Amino acid sequence: MKKSGRSQHLHLLILFLLSFAGLAFGFSSHGLTDAEAGFIRQRQLLYYRDEFGDRGESVTVDPSLNFPNSHLRDAYIALQAWKLAIISDPLNLTADWVGSDVCSYTGVFCAPLPSDPHLTVVAGIDLNHGDIAGYLPEELGLLTDLALFHINSNRFCGTIPHKFDCLHLLFELDLSNNRFAGKFPDVVLHLPSLKYLDIRFNEFEGGVPKALFDKDLDAIFINHNRFAFDIPDNLGNSPVSVIVFANNRFRGCVPASLGNMSKTLNEIILLNNGLRSCLPPEIGLLKELTVFDVSFNELLGPLPDSIGWMRSLEQLDESRRCA
Q: How far apart are CA 196 and CA 283, in angstroms?
């Protein structure tokens, strides 16, 4: 019954979206072409397959293929599944993703495993600026040795695979400038080695979990999404050097705990978030801060005198939007 309900819901939603797609996507008001309808249907199907945890690709391994170790065999399965999930690759970056030598694939980088230097593994993926369209299959969770995953400036959609929580060595995650949607990807909270998180310029929405600011991160970029939430009181727990919230819709006050970030914070950008509050005097404790941008909000009251204590400040912008 549950699966039937999902299918019915998905069918009705696609019909609704097709009816109004001309408004959302700028298509002709005289009706959709087959290509336009197919594009919308694919986007929505990917999103709902993600939501129900039912996405993946069937990959079989030719028994004639030889792999130096099981890690590279798993990487082969993951990358072949990803290739199947790609709809468009105009630069042919994945054209050479053929055969067992995964370390020779474009955008794939191998290195010795830190815990076993004699073992070669897939340690990084960089497909930045590839203009690739598709989604991320669950099989990517097989890349358990991955330290870097960079896919900015593509056209990937859907959400982030649940099995990303198997990437225990992942240090940098850059998903920026794509078409990911849905709620904040909570799976990033389960990545113990993560230091750099960049999910800006996507279509994520809803709240941002408080637990994000308890993680040992160095940089958080969540700007240019559709997040709407109260800035949590534990913001000051974060040890980041850079945090960018710009162009979302935040509520509440800038918390006094911001002053707790005095030893690490270099840049904080909160511009155009609809903030309606005063700035707490504790911001004067941010002695290492070089950039402080709260422009185009609806801040109340004067700037606190404690700003004069910010000895490293190079750029201050508090240009205000009229209330």
A: 24
pLDDT in tens, 95-135: 999 999 999 999 999 999 999 999 999 999 999 999 999 99
The superfamily in CATH containing domain 56-206 is Ribonuclease Inhibitor (3.80.10.10)
Instruction: Please enumerate in sequence order all residues whose Cβ is within 8 A of that of 191, keeping only pairs 6 or more positions apart, or say none.
Output: 164, 165, 167, 168, 170, 173
Show the tokens assigned to 156: 């990937």
CATH superfamily of 207-323: Ribonuclease Inhibitor (3.80.10.10)
Q: Are strands 203-206 and 179-183 parallel, antiparallel or unpaired?
A: parallel
In this chain, the answer to whether the domains covering 56-206 and 207-323 adopt an identical fold is yes
Token reading at 119: 């073992």
Chain-centroid distance, C-alpha 71 = 25
- pTM for the model stands at 0.83
